[in-house]
Recover the amino acids of this structure.
């Protein structure tokens, strides 16, 4: 069998499958949730074909299911593509004044972060005014499970998506305080969901602690996180972090209000 010449049209079946997969992505983006029966009807294909296409998209992270046989929702890959295209610029622009306000309230360094795979990337930062402070962290990448910013986002992920990202359940320890056992991380994520904020005491870097809260988009998916990052000498325990949490949560709410106003 000869291969198609470069630039020649794809076989008809392949083209149709690609078109249907792209249409499914558009539909999920529009509706935020799509069942197999709905997909089959909207595409005018058999349910088995719609199921196969949705499963292929799920295996690549474009869509997720909250439970077996449940509706398909936008997955992390779609979120990350959106962030790469426009999200980070918009979030930074909207959130930056709030970061500055939180810096003034706490007199500490404040950061904005996004999730990239199993890592968290700091995409904006304003340094605190104190002589002893955490420096600008913009561009720094750390394992998500070792930071308050990352754990806040991980706690907001749907369970199937968390399981997909950590299929091997392997966690890298960066310091003696890092969480290195999966069951311990799961227990902490439960606590973060209960409290509404995450705390890190020298888990990612010696001498640095933090308190963080997640920012969610209009579909309730985690979009980014806002954090106060502080020398561990001023936040040596998790209880000390709890004192900063109300200010972080108020800043989170202020950013969300501005983002909703933009929409």
């Amino acid at each position: 069998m000869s291969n198609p010449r470069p630039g020649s049209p794809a076989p008809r079946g392949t083209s149709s499958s690609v078109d249907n997969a792209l249409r499914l992505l558009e539909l999920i983006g529009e509706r935020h949730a799509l069942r197999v029966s709905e997909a089959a009807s909207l595409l005018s294909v058999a349910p088995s074909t719609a199921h196969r296409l949705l499963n292929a998209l799920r295996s690549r992270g474009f869509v997720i299911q909250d439970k077996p046989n449940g509706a398909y929702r936008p997955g992390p890959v779609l979120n990350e593509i959106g962030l790469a295209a426009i999200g980070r610029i918009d979030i930074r622009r909207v959130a930056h004044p709030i970061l500055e306000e939180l810096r003034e309230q706490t007199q500490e360094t404040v950061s904005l972060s996004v999730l990239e795979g199993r890592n968290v990337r700091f995409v904006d930062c304003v340094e605190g005014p104190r002589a002893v402070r955490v420096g600008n962290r913009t561009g720094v990448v750390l394992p998500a499970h070792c930071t308050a910013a990352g754990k806040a986002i991980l706690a907001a992920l749907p369970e199937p998506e968390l399981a997909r990202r950590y299929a091997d359940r392997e966690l890298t320890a960066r310091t003696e305080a890092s969480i290195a056992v999966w069951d311990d991380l799961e227990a902490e994520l439960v606590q973060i969901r209960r409290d509404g904020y995450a705390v890190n005491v020298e888990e990612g870097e010696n001498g640095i602690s933090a308190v963080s809260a997640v920012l969610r988009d209009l579909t309730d998916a985690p979009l980014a996180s806002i954090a106060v990052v502080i020398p561990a000498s001023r936040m040596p325990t998790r209880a000390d972090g709890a004192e900063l949490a109300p200010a972080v949560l108020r800043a989170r709410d202020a950013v969300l209000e501005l983002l909703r106003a933009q929409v």
